Amino acid sequence: MANTYPDQQRTLGSLLRLPYQELQNAVYGALASHGFADLRTAHSAVFRHLDPDGTRLTTLAERAGMTKQSMAYLVDALTESGYLTTAADPHDGRAKRVLLTRRGSKAMATLLALSAEFEQRLAERLGAGKMTRLRALLEEVADALESSGLRDAP
After folding, report:
1. Would you say 57 and 72 are in contact if contact means Cβ atoms under 8 Å apart?
2. 78 close to 46: Cβ distance less than 8 angstroms
3. I need a surface site. Which of 3, 59, 147, 154 has the fewest CB within 10 A?
């Protein structure tokens, strides 16, 4: 672990960040061997926030906590690489939705499979019981944050 102040203090952010970074590095590092060498960790800001029926660019940016311009840059790059397309929003003809293409859907399936492989390797390291408890606790934390409004608190 790095020697930053949060890491020295083992803050909650530090303890959550390290496993996520390792997961992201493992998953995106393995993509090249699965035919997706042009995908980078920065693209996860798009993939992890897409709805199955498409998502507006502004919504993607809000969910990722980034500017609309930064999200547009990522979406444009992924569109040029054949992972995304845009279509009219069925609820608002003036708006567009960002959607996965067939290649994008294959990439998403690969990302999810690689994530599951990483989780399995971690379970082998921690033991099945600890992994089950960790997953249950993280689900509980996610549910509490989603239902309590803590996400919106200062």
Report:
1. yes
2. yes
3. 154
